[in-house]
Amino acid sequence: xxxxxxxxxxxxxxxxxxxxxxxxxxxxxxxxxxxxxxxxxxxxxxxxxxxxxxxxxxxxxxxxxxxxxxxxxxxxxxxxxxxxxxxxxxxxxxxxxxxxxxxxxxxxxxxxxxxxxxxxxxxxxxxxxxxxxxxxxxxxxxxxxxxxxxxxxxxxxxx
Length: 159
Prior knowledge:
Layout: E1 2-6, H1 10-23, E2 28-32, H2 35-44, E3 49-52, E4 56-57, E5 70-71, H3 74-85, E6 90-95, E7 99-102, E8 105-108, H4 109-120, E9 123-129, H5 136-156
Parallel strand pairs: 1-2, 1-3, 3-6, 6-9
Antiparallel strand pairs: 4-5, 7-8
Helix pairs in contact: 1-5, 2-3
């Protein structure tokens, strides 16, 4: 199973990667740190799962432009272009924002997965509220990964 983590914050990326490695131990995990690198990797590779932050810089901080403009809805831009390019994967949003702006409307995180799925015709399975100083988000992500792992194994059939 191939997993792409799209996150620019090193601390948050390490937290999420730890849970991904625990929940999907046989997977290959790659990371993008900007809208541009996420789009490049999504179009070049076949990912089963994309874990996506909402706030992303335009470019990688280490690349030309030093990260470029921060995009508060950079994750939405990744979904928009993935839809346009026909990139099929399961998407999970892990964000500190309580709402996601979709077509000019603030949508509560609890409703955002369904709205993003309908808007971009992609499988946005979950929106997880990340907290630096809390761990409720860890349980939410663990539960999703357990369900995703079970569903993926069932879909693959017997070995």
